[in-house]
Amino acid sequence: MTEALRTPDDRFDALPGFPFAPRYRDDLPGFAGLRMHYLDEGRADGPVFLCLHGQPTWSYLYRKMIPVFAGAGRVVAPDLFGFGRSDKPVDDGWYTFERHRDSLIALIQALDLTDITLVCQDWGGLLGLTLPVDMPDRFSRLIVMNTGIGTGEHSLGEGFEAWKAYNRSQPDLAVGKLLKRSTPILTDAEAAAYDAPFPDARHKAGVRRFPELVPASPDAPGAAISRRARDWLKTVWDGPTFMAVGMQDPVITPRAMSYLRAQIRNCPPPMELADAGHFVQEWGEPVARAALAAFGEP
């Protein structure tokens, strides 16, 4: 059994703009004894919008996009292990690229999700964009925000290296303050909601590990599957893609997003958000509406 912590439910009471009911799976193959949280909103007769968060956030990040997508279909927004209302293994070494990816595959299969629109940013893309190559019959469309594909072939850049060094120096990272600093439009209550999953440093093993897991060399864990996914997206993928770019992101810059666009077959010019930074979902309602309009949804 993996030693894990479970954030008390009362820390999630009355979060601003987040009326969604929690759902859980504790039967994912390969993850015995661990419970994964996810949101499941909207209607069953439309496409599935699979919304994947990154570091150091959780499904709260999608609160402004969920109501828009729920009008067009079903919205599933999981919390990765170590984040949100999902269980949090206490051993930093438990967290690997493969485990996070396998847990998403297990959830997709357990819920039997099909006709998926992948909605991704940050680690939601680093992991999520590797999924369609192995589950092509389940994925139909992409909505891609500030993220990348970790092939290990290129320098991660000064901005990312600075972020990694900072995160390494903060074993009890002040998550809400970080979000508030990088996203000034957040209210104090919204910033505090990003702290809700993390009562103390023991709950932050996943937060500490994520930056270290970005493949930095061709033989790093996750790099091979990322290259295979990149090649598939560039040559085989034929679904509609919508891209939105936070132009103020110092880590995953507009230049990095331009490079990613070139790796996704038939990806049209992106929606550029001049005032948005890394956490594009905080500008999520107009982004979601623009994506549905680009896909021809009402």
Q: How many domain units?
A: 1
Rg from C-alpha positions?
A: 17 Å
Overall form:
globular
Query: What characterizes the major β-sheet?
Result: 8 strands, mixed
CATH fold-type name:
Rossmann fold
* SSE sequence, one letter per element: EEEEHEEHEHEHHHHHEHEH
Q: How would you sum up this structure, described in words?
A:
The chain has 298 residues and is an alpha/beta fold. The protein has one domain: Alpha/Beta hydrolase fold, catalytic domain (Rossmann fold, 3-Layer(aba) Sandwich). Helix content is 32%, strand content 15%. It contains 10 helices and 10 strands. The strands form 2 sheets. An 8-stranded mixed β-sheet has the order 2-3-5-4-7-8-9-10, with helices on both faces. Strands 1-6 form a two-stranded antiparallel ribbon. Helix 4 runs antiparallel to helix 7 and helix 5 packs across helix 6. The chain is globular and about 45 Å long. The termini are far apart.
Question: What is the topology?
Answer:
Blueprint: E1 4-5, E2 23-25, E3 36-42, E4 48-52, H1 66-70, E5 74-78, E6 88-89, H2 97-111, E7 116-120, H3 123-128, E8 139-144, H4 158-168, H5 175-182, H6 188-195, H7 205-213, H8 223-235, E9 241-246, H9 254-262, E10 271-273, H10 284-294
Parallel strand pairs: 4-5, 4-7, 7-8, 8-9, 9-10
Antiparallel strand pairs: 1-6, 2-3, 3-5
Helix pairs in contact: 4-7, 5-6
